[in-house]
């Protein structure tokens, strides 16, 4: 289906990541149209990717086989006022990456007969190293599921979940997760700098360590607990650091953080539903 017209509503970070990934995977730029309200963003999209970018969402959607919703959850309801009749008439697949906005809300905005699926990607999609979870209800055909997966796979790894509620957990884990790792790397660098290591050296080493650890974790059959144990020699420096983390209840802090992100995802979805 990706040899047909594809519309992306929203030319922000995730919209740009998807466009770049799709072009790298062989989709031609003339097959992609983008609905974007910012004149500067439209000009940038056209110049960088060669795609058609317009402020008229209905124009972007008209004739599309797939419509990707890539706007903030708070902006989604208003957007459908202008494209709902077109969606109902043409019935493209709507693939939403709006965090927390549930299928029942999306379907109420689209109207009966429009197939809807959800995706939860993350920011590393910008460099083709994303992690995306997909969910589609039973009524979405295998062909449409395959098209949704191809879009997501253009920017990284893809998994399917069988329960829509799991997407809130995915949002808290991989959607928000990169920020957790960046925070840890930042704190590591700051700590080393406070102990006397030059700050630029500390930042370089922390970033390289984050990158390398991610590569190791992503190797075939990688086991996170084993990878950790391989570094933590008995009585060594790593074991001392891990003991300090345990004493500070790092596990509890992470559980609290992930739980807070899950709750916020559900709040965003509820707010979007109230605004519809």
How does this structure look, described?
The protein contains 12 helices and 8 strands. By secondary structure, it is an alpha/beta fold. The protein has 2 domains: 6-163, NAD(P)-binding Rossmann-like Domain (Rossmann fold), CATH 3.40.50.720; 175-264, ProC C-terminal domain-like fold (Orthogonal Bundle), CATH 1.10.3730.10. Helix 6 (142-153) links the parallel strand 7 (130-135) and strand 8. The protein starts with 5 loop residues before the first strand and ends with a helix. 34% of the residues are buried. The mean pLDDT is 93.
Structural class: alpha/beta
Q: Can you say what the CATH homologous superfamily of the largest domain is?
A: NAD(P)-binding Rossmann-like Domain
Query: Distance between the terminal alpha carbons, to the nearest Å?
Result: 30 Å
Number of domains: 2
Average pLDDT for all residues: 93
Strands across the major sheet, in which order?
A: 3-2-1-4-5-6-7-8
Count of DSSP E strands? 8
Q: How would a textbook summarize the main sheet?
A: 8 strands, mixed
| Cα-atom radius of gyration | 21 Å
**How much of the sequence is in beta strands?**
5-15%
Q: Write the element-wise H/E pattern from the N-terminal end onward.
A: EHEHEHEHEHEEHEHHHHHH
Identify low-pLDDT runs.
none
Helix content class? 55-70%
CATH fold description of the largest domain: Rossmann fold
CATH class of the largest domain: Alpha Beta
């Amino acid at each position: 289906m990706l040899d047909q017209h594809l519309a992306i509503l929203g030319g922000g970070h995730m919209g740009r990541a998807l466009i770049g990934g799709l072009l790298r995977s062989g989709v031609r730029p003339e097959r992609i149209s983008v609905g974007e309200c910012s004149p500067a963003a439209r000009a940038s999209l056209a110049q960088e990717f060669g795609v058609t970018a317009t402020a008229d969402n209905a124009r972007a959607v008209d004739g599309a086989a797939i419509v990707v919703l890539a706007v903030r959850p708070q902006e989604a309801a208003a957007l459908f006022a202008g494209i709902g009749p077109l969606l109902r008439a043409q019935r493209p697949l709507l693939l939403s990456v709006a965090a927390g906005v549930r299928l029942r809300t999306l379907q109420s905005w689209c109207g009966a007969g429009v197939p809807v699926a959800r995706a939860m990607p993350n920011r590393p999609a910008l460099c083709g190293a994303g992690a995306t979870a997909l969910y589609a209800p039973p009524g979405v055909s295998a062909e449409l599921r395959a098209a949704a997966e191809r879009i997501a796979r253009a920017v990284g790894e893809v998994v399917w979940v069988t329960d829509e509620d799991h997407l809130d957990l995915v949002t808290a884990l991989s959607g928000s997760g990169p920020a957790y790792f960046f925070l840890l790397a930042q704190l590591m660098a700051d700590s080393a700098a406070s102990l006397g290591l030059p700050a630029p050296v500390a930042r370089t080493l922390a970033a390289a360590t984050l990158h390398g650890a991610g590569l190791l974790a992503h190797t075939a059959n990688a086991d996170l607990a084993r990878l950790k144990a391989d570094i933590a020699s008995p009585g060594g420096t790593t074991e001392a650091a891990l003991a300090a983390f345990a004493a500070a209840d790092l596990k509890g802090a992470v559980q609290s953080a992930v739980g807070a992100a899950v709750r916020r995802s559900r709040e965003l979805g509820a707010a979007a539903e109230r605004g519809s």
